[in-house]
Amino acid sequence: GDSVTQMEGPVTLSEEAFLTINCTYTATGYPSLFWYVQYPGEGLQLLLKATKADDKGSNKGFEATYRKETTSFHLEKGSVQVSDSAVYFCALSENTDKLIFGTGTRLQVFP
Amino acid sequence: IAGITQAPTSQILAAGRRMTLRCTQDMRHNAMYWYRQDLGLGLRLIHYSNTAGTTGKGEVPDGYSVSRANTDDFPLTLASAVPSQTSVYFCASRKAGTGNTEAFFGQGTRLTVV
Q1: Cα–Cα distance list, A66 to A10, A53, A110, B40 (Å)
Q2: Does residue B38 carry a pLDDT above 70?
Q3: Residue B85 in 3-state DSSP?
């Protein structure tokens, strides 16, 4: 079945460092791909998405490119801030309308 | 704008008891989902519903049941709670269709089964 694999956390960075969180997926068709973010004590909220190969999703300085050839959707940000500390989830969805999540990666940014 | 509301916020429940977690949305979304979030396991799909009157099983449906009598409500029932069902439960909804729409999440219900 469909699945999402994310890098283990926590990822610990100093402010203004470059961030990469790896995400790869397995799907039978052509899914849409998402990154969601969860701040402490809250539910998840959409960060960005891409719906077809080579699409780049971007929001709040974060970006991710849908790479069909490597089945990947890595999240990047050029300069992280303390306020970016959260748990980040990669997810996929095919036409069945199931929304499948990875295990999440905790990011901790220190001043 | 309420969005999606879950109740209760938290609950301590004796093993063997029955419990219903409530979820209501006011966005007229067709698709709704229940997830459980456990440390190291991320979000796992319990049940989903693509439209009122239909439901489907996710990755971890055992011990849980759902109903979708109307568009707005999607309750999750634990018929006889066990300690392994201690978790944080999230309800979500989104427009159904092509699978590329944003999902909106509730604030979660923290359930402890003792």
Answers
A1: 24, 5, 29, 25
A2: yes
A3: helix
d(CA A60, CA B56) in angstroms, rounded, equals 35
Interface of B with A in 27-86 (CB under 8 A): 31, 33, 35, 40-45, 48, 50, 56, 58
| Pick from B9, B5, B13: nearest CA to B72 | B5
**Which of B98, B100, B102, B107 to mutate to probe the A interface, most A CBs <10 Å?**
B100
DSSP character for A52? Answer: S
How many contacts does A have with B, using Cβ atoms within 8 A?
60
Please tell me the total number of residues recorded for chain A in this structure.
111
Contact of A47 with B111, CB cutoff 8 Å: no
Dig out the tokens for A66 from the structure. 């849908």
Q: How do residues B44-62 score in pLDDT, each as one tens digit?
A: 999 999 999 999 999 999 9
**Burial per residue of A20-46, b for 16 or more beta-carbon CB atoms within 10 angstroms, e otherwise:** ebebbbebeeebbbbbbbbeeeebbeb
**Does A97 contact B48 at a Cβ distance shorter than 8 Å?**
yes
